[in-house]
Amino acid sequence: MVAVVAAIIFMERGQRRIPVQYAKRVSPEDVTAVRARTSAQDQYLGVIPPIFASSILIFPGTIASFFPDNPWALRAADALSPQSPIYMLLYVALIIFFCYFSTAVTFNRWRFPTT
């Protein structure tokens, strides 16, 4: 358990140092190049993908609870209960999907120069 917490903290605090170079004008005749580094956080969106994934997977069970006499709804709720292997596989797949999708939507790649 301690190793898992340490790995999570390590990944959450990680960042990439990206070298950038821009012009600094001291006077109209004197232009010097300034080198600096900007950082891009590796874990860009935090806990948003697991929240979205769990919300989508819990939704069929919530709908099934409105229809307790329907056998199809009960089977769907049992198949997507948090203890089932199908739930776990879908949960991991949805987290990966939402990590990629939400980063692709919100990350502005033009903010960082190409070097």
Architecture overview:
- The protein has four helices and two strands; from the N terminus they run αββααα.
- By secondary structure, the chain is α+β, with helices and mostly antiparallel strands.
- The mean pLDDT is 77.
- It has helices spanning 2-13, 48-65, 71-79, 85-106, and strands at 15-25, 31-41.
- The two termini are 40 Å apart.
- Helix content is 53%, strand content 19%.
- A two-stranded antiparallel sheet has the order 1-2.
- Strand 1 and strand 2 form a beta hairpin.
How far apart are the first and last residues' alpha carbons, in Å?
40 Å
Structural class: alpha+beta
- What can be said about the biggest beta sheet? 2 strands, antiparallel
Number of strand elements: 2
Number of helices: 4
- What level of helicity do the residues show? 40-55%
Element order: H for helix, E for strand:
HEEHHH
Given as residue ranges, the uncertain stretches (5+ residues, pLDDT < 50) are: none
Furnish the topology, listing elements before pairings.
Layout: H1 2-13, E1 15-25, E2 31-41, H2 48-65, H3 71-79, H4 85-106
Name a few traits of the molecule.
115 residues; alpha+beta; two-stranded antiparallel ribbon; 2 strands
